[in-house]
Amino acid sequence: MDKKIEKKPWWHYKKIGCYLLAVAALVTLYAVVYRDSGTSRLNVQKERLSVDTVATGIFQEFIPVSGVVQPIKTVFLDAMEGGRVEELFVEDGSVVKKGQAILRLVNTDLQSSYLNQEASLVAQINQIRSTSVMMEQQSLNLREQALDVDYRITQLRKTVERNKSLIEDNIISQVEYELSEDEFNHLKRRRKMLQLTMEKDSMFQEMQQRQMESSIDLMERNLDFAKQSLDNLLIKAPISGQLSSLSKEIGELITRGENIAQIDLLTNYKIRARIDEYYISRIFTSQKGSFQFDGQSFEVEIKKIYPAVSNGGFEVDLVFTQTPPRSIKRGQTLPIRLALSDESEALLLARGSFYQSTGGNWVYIVDPETNTARKQEIKVGKQNPNYYEILEGLKPGDIVITTGYDNYNEKEELILN
Length: 417
Prior knowledge:
six-stranded mixed sheet, elongated, 34% strand, 4 helices, conserved putative lor/sdh protein from methanococcus maripaludis s2 fold, alpha+beta, Elongation Factor Tu (Ef-tu), domain 3, 22 strands
């Protein structure tokens, strides 16, 4: 038996609509209340964000610097004397040995001066020899006079003694005796005078001899200096190495002190790097650095610091602590990672542009379950070009938005769509 279906009245559908409107009103009211409850929100497209997961790892503070490979030692060749290039023995870029001739200069003024000094020295030596002969002759004359006086004194002594006995026997007169005695005394006084003269002459000759020897020695040294100047016209390699920057040509005039070339010692290399002056107080000798080359890591250390600051930076020399790469070349540029601290374990967060927005004071932490990101205060320690050291506010596994926050107006929460 069929059952009669009753048609629902129109007011029944109206009741359902009222229910729906009430639910919508409640949802709207809840949204308004939630919005006004103190939490500010902003919808953000997830695809435009970069995030990083906080993790524990090895942290080291370092700065990237760029260094240029240079020979471990470079010797500059400067002209000790000026002159005209007469002969070239090697070409630029050649490998030379210590003492090997590189080029020869000619200087007629130096050659003429050397010959004049040599002639003057010979003349002075001859004059000194003549003076020595004259002084020796004078000494011989004085000694001869002394011998003659000694002989006459001996003879007169005998005469005086004989006359003394004769005058006692009244054989000779008193006058004759006195004359012989006076002559004897005169000769003795003359002998004393000759002795003083000979002593003075000996002292004078000795002084003259020293002066003449000193004069000759001075002239010989001047001559040696002039000869050295001539020898300096032949430019030789002071060390073994590779010759470079030799651009002189035969016939070219070179002034005294002018740079001729340079020789690079190729047994080892150093790296000249430029560092921002901001780090000058944190740079010291023996500080370590490293770089990658041909798939291998090489360690270097600071050997010398140049304190002069120019154009906002200063320079340092780094040397290899091990055998340098075989294929390394002079003038090559290397990216060096210069350590400012030792390695230590720390909580790490990748660098990002958010730091410029917050100064490292807070970040947004992502909640994957709710697709939201909330604001979290943090404390950042040291940093390097790759990571920040997190001291407070984060834990391992936290997901942090690392892109810039400039467009978020410091909202408390981000809704990720």
